[in-house]
Amino acid sequence: MAGAIAGAELRLMLRSRLALVGVATLLLLSGIAAVTSAVQTASASATRAAAQAATDAQFQTQPDRHPHRMVHYGTYALRPVGPLAAFDSGVDAFTGTVLFLEGHRQNSATFGAARESSDLVRFGQLTPAFVLQTLAPLLLVFLGFAAVARERERGSLRALRSHGATAAGILAGKVLALGAVALLAMAPALVALLWSALRHPGEGGIAALIALAYAAYLLVWVIGITAVSALARTAQGALVALIAAWAIITVLVPRAAAGWAGVADPLPTRVDTEFAIAADLRRLGDSHNPDDKYFAAFKARILDRYGVTSTDDLPVNYRGLVAAEGERLTSELFANYAARADAIQRGQSARLQALGVISPALAVRQASMVGAATDLGTHLAFMNRAEAYRYDLIQRLNALQANQVSSADDGARSRDPLADQRTRISADFWKTMPQFHLAAPAPATRATAMLPALGLLGLWLAISALLLALARRTLDRTAE
User: Fold this and answer.
1) Which of 3, 35, 50, 145 has the most CB atoms at less than 10 Å from its CB?
2) What is the rounded CA–CA span in Å between residue 90 and residue 83?
3) 355 CB neighbour count, 10 Å cutoff
4) Angle at 17 between CA 16 and CA 18, to 5 degrees
5) Tell me, what's the pLDDT at 115?
6) Residue 43: which residues within 8 A CB-CB, separation 6 or more?
7) In angstroms, how far is CA 108 from the centroid of its own chain?
8) Is 101 helix (H, G, I), strand (E, B) or coil?
């Protein structure tokens, strides 16, 4: 009986121009989103890989230089494209993708699409994930709002009951019909997921998990729409209630939640942070000031360690040791500020994830971004990995100054051209420096991180099932 009711509902949709136009439009948008996102992601991946190779080559092909010149010359780290980023670009448009690495500073990532493009990017990029999160539920609302309410208004519920249809069978048939439409709406996105998984061997399991999350999300809408249609007195009342629910769940709550998380746990501005770091740097000590207490004590420790009375008698270049110590102090300071900022941002993200209790859109969005490796955690991992690489690179260059550059030549290079020439070490040393590399989190790690969001979707499925059970009881009473 449920199958027969579902078939009748689908035939009714096929006879409706509005339904056909709506489904065709969604499929077209979803297909366009899949193709354009795939093309843009492939282009971004190739561009970043080429840019990283180019900047590495530029660093390695520098001529003979003083090591400290290379410290200030610096290099770049580019965040690789997530393995499933063609499906869900996540926070990539807002966090920046390029980081300049140099001595004595910790820079911010730049070239985020939201800052390089129009403000429309902030509303949402047209990706398969965006279509499923926002547009597909709206289509389901317009196709399913009258599924049961229409039967009540026409007086056909009693006729169905007289043919042996129970309230549960009627609701099951309506759910099956609307679920078939939801599955059709998912088809282009599923193809996009499959294509991304094929391009990245080993991503099949996490792609299936993302597809499961969206299937659960749309099933919540299918069951909820059917239940509201059964509970509403009129089809018009069901439509108004469901449009209001769509606007609140997919638009209002996610944006209000983001604003609330930022207000509840604000992140210091870059300007404030820069001023605070500058003040702390002045308190750390000045390696260029011979009377500075910290570096005077440092000098005494170095002389005592080597058993000499003057830096000229050291077997290494004292300036290189001072540069390494200064870099250690500043990097520890940068790490402390970065850790505070990371904690605040992770706290904001946790608040958003917790609010998945009041909006399944937040839950599925979190699961999708984590699975696609385009979430905040992946970006912070990139920043931390880049900082670790920067510190290691700078300290390697400082070690070259300490061990490969004569202390006497280093002290005289500003006034003696020959000494300046002798402080320029061989360019072969630049080729020994390691290159930046960052791999996406392992699929198993991402799958584990998706569990809280999947749990919230399970909770919403339970809530929608309870709502459907209430609708069944209401239909039973109506029949009596």
Assistant:
1) 145
2) 12
3) 20
4) 90
5) 44
6) none
7) 16
8) strand
Contact (CB, 8 A) for 77 and 101: yes
Cβ of 134: how many Cβ atoms within 10 Å?
18
Quick one: which H or E segment has residue 78?
A: strand 75-78
Q: Where are the domains of the chain?
A: 2-479
Question: Residue 237 has which token pair?
Answer: 């009342």
What's the full length of the chain, in residues? Answer: 480
Query: Dihedral, CA atoms, 214, 220, 221, 222, nearest 10 degrees?
Result: 100
Please, are residues 101 and 386 in contact by the beta-carbon 8 Å criterion?
yes
Cβ–Cβ under 8 Å, residues 168 and 59: no
Q: For residue 172, which of 226, 106, 104 has the smallest C-alpha distance?
A: 226
267 and 344 Cβ atoms separated by less than 8 Å? yes
pLDDT of residue 242: 95
Q: Cα–Cα distance between 368 and 127 in angstroms, integer? A: 12
How crowded is residue 118: how many other Cβ atoms within 10 Å of its Cβ?
8
DSSP 3-state helix, strand, coil percentages of the chain (rounded to 5)? Answer: 75, 5, 20
State the first-to-last Cα distance of the chain, in angstroms, to the nearest integer. 20
Per-residue confidence (pLDDT) for residue 154, from 0 to 100 = 80
By CB atoms closer than 10 A (0-12, 13-18, 19+), residue 418 is exposed
Neighbouring-strand partners of residue 100: 76
Query: Among positive and negative, which fits the CA dihedral 399, 61, 79, 197?
Result: negative
CA distance 95 to 441: 18
Helix or strand holding residue 68 (H, E): helix 67-73
Which H or E run includes 2?
A: helix 2-14
Q: How far is the C-alpha of 434 from the C-alpha of 431, rounded, in Å?
A: 8
**Using an 8 Å Cβ cutoff, are 212 and 225 in contact?**
no
H/E element, 469: helix 443-479
CA 418, chain centre distance (Å): 52
Q: How are beta strands 105-106 and 98-102 bridged, if at all?
A: antiparallel
The three-class DSSP label of residue 200 is: coil
Average pLDDT across each block of 10 residues of the chain; the chain has 480 residues. List them in order: 81 85 91 89 90 93 93 91 88 85 84 47 70 94 89 76 78 92 92 86 91 96 94 91 95 89 83 82 72 84 91 90 90 90 90 89 94 91 93 94 91 88 92 89 92 95 95 77
With beta carbons less than 8 A apart as the criterion, state whether 394 and 306 touch: no
Kindly list the distances between the CA atom of residue 275 and the CA atoms of 71, 270, 331, in Å, as whole numbers in the listed order.
23, 9, 16
pTM given for the model? 0.87
Residue written as tokens 């930046």? 436
Phi and psi, residue 165, nearest 5°: -80, 125
Q: Which amino acid is at 62?
A: Q
